[in-house]
Structure of Transport system permease protein:
Amino acid sequence: MSRPVALLGLVLLVVLVFGASLALGSRWLGAGAVLRALVEPAGTDADVIVRSLRFPRTVVAVLIGACLGVAGALMQGHTRNALAEPGIFGVSAGAALAVVLGLQLGVVESVRSTVWFALVGALIATFGVQRLASRGSGATPVGLALTGAAVAALLGALTSAIVLLDADTLDSYRFWAVGSVAGRGLDVAVQVLPFAVVGLVLAVINARDLDLLALGDDVAAGLGLSIRRARFVGLLAIGLLTAAGVAACGPIGFLGLLAGHVARRVFGARNIWLIPAAALTGAAALMLADLVGRLVGGAGEVQAGVVLGLVGAPLFVLVVRRRAVAL
């Protein structure tokens, strides 16, 4: 199958899952009812369900799934490790610590304020990792990975210390930390959209440089590539995309790992194809996880982050065991 055809297939999959997300849930709606709710709403129960509940969370799932999918693909490329994920930079841990501090200070009282605190924390952690890893021989893939893991462990320990010592903060934090698109409206998507767009544009710009970096730093430098600039642009893109995702929906694990790896298996290592494929794969995966959580949760629902962990992780381990993982 050619890459354009495969990419078109992913687009159709995203459209199909988007429609299913609007139609299915605790109350199943037909295609006609969904279309009427979107085009000619009359104030019926079906209109309210589609327009006020399902449509906003589905849009958020598409946006955040695309962000985390591309971040995962970039992370795997820059670390040259197919099992890498954006969390290894400490971005999610930085966002979580900032939100916890905001909760403890009493200044985080809504999704709007959570978005900005998480974004600030994530970006500070991203640049901090890049700064630390750049000392000495520069921000090499191994240096970035090790520095990011150390920073993530430190920030995670600080977050745990704060929430364990403050019951009120822990009670508020645990609902955000599970990772979900439930209750997220279009206002959340609008707030993180500028960061997501900039991150995606930087990812596209970084695609050619990432292809050269795959040849090795010496070869890439010999071809005229600025290694430091390429890594900085890639790191900034990863930081912005992951920050947008974590800020809007909490730290959703595994999604970047899954989307980046699946896209690489289907489309190969050329990043001009890999990046849009990872975005579409991530969007479809997060929508599916949210939909499955609504269908199996009965009167309530299982959060998308939980579904991705329970379903996706075992499947990914199976893939890794059956096939060698290499870039």
User: Anything to note?
Assistant: The longest helix spans residues 45-79. The chain has one domain: 3-322. The chain is about 80% helix and 0% strand.
